[in-house]
């Protein structure tokens, strides 16, 4: 890959929780303008990887390059200021705040604060239900609406790369489709996206490139259209050479 096309490069990171090593020598590259999915069973390390990219977990070793700068070790707010954002697992939102207040929480950095009205309009256009419910407490939202709010809040920081963790967990199929179509639209508007979803088939369908994780390692990578069934088996049953030995 030409280095100027590369938005993010994770190089051989190792991450531990106390004595337990959750990521082993994980490397990946995210090309600008793409949708990349990270698939793997429960506990594979997907959230740990996203949290490490965002600076929430600190790698013991390795490098994380974003737009040519090493962001390894920076605090999360500096990483967000550089153009990374996360829609976290469990679509966690501030339940006692209104929808609009939640969105404004995503625009806390000076650059984004200046653009907040323009960006509010943008996310209300992408997710019209959030405009309708702007004045309501987030605790009244359905699961799908909460997921939309979590994505929209991340967009309020004007990211160049959006990481979405467990984008469809627990949601009805019709809502999932709606969210994926919006993700596609956001991508077509120029945003690069990393997707994590237990719904492997759907995330393969909507992404350009995929990485498969198993027990804290990347065990397979390729164009999503080419990975297919093999990736699904790998992700869930770990039919990896290392496991057969
Ligand atoms: N805060 C923590 N402390 C200790 N161990 C943790 C912590 N968070 C995650 N782990 C462990 O690290 C491993 C990777 O967890 P992680 O949450 O990254 O997986 P995941 O692929 O996101 O799983 P899921 O599909 O369930 O969201 C698991 O074995 C998990 O038990
Ligand atoms: Mg997770």
Automatic annotation (TrEMBL):
Pfam families named among the record's database cross-references: ABC_tran
Occurrences of domain ABC transporter (ranges): 8-240
GO biological process: L-amino acid transport
Transmembrane found in the keyword field: no
InterPro entries named among the record's database cross-references: AAA+_ATPase, ABC_transporter-like_ATP-bd, ABC_transporter-like_CS, BCAA_Transport_ATP-bd_LivF, P-loop_NTPase
SUPFAM superfamilies xref list: P-loop containing nucleoside triphosphate hydrolases
Keywords noted in UniProt: Amino-acid transport, ATP-binding, Nucleotide-binding, Transport
Protein name as catalogued: High-affinity branched-chain amino acid transport ATP-binding protein LivF
Gene: livF_3
């Amino acid at each position: 890959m030409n280095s100027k096309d590369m938005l993010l490069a994770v190089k051989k990171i190792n991450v531990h929780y106390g004595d337990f090593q959750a990521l082993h020598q994980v490397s990946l590259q995210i090309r600008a303008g793409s949708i990349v999915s990270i698939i793997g069973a429960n506990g594979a390390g997907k959230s740990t990887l996203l949290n490490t990219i965002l600076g929430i977990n600190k790698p013991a070793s390795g490098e994380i390059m974003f737009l040519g700068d090493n962001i390894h070790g920076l605090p999360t707010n500096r990483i967000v200021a550089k153009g990374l954002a996360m829609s976290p697992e469990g679509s966690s939102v501030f339940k006692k705040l209104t929808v609009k207040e939640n969105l404004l929480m995503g625009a806390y950095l000076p650059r984004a604060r200046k653009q907040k009205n323009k960006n509010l309009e943008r996310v209300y256009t992408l997710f019209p239900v959030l405009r309708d419910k702007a004045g309501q407490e987030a605790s009244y939202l359905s699961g799908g609406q909460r997921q939309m709010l979590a994505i929209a809040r991340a967009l309020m920081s004007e990211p160049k790369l959006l990481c979405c963790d467990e984008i469809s967990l627990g949601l009805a199929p019709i809502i999932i489709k709606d969210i994926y179509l919006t993700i596609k639209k956001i991508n077509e508007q120029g945003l690069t996206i990393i997707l994590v979803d237990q719904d492997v088939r759907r995330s393969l369908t909507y992404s350009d490139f995929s990485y498969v994780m198993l027990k804290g390692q990347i065990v397979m990578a390729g164009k999503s259209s080419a990975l297919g069934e093999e990736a699904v088996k790998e992700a869930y049953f770990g039919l990896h050479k290392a496991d057969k030995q």
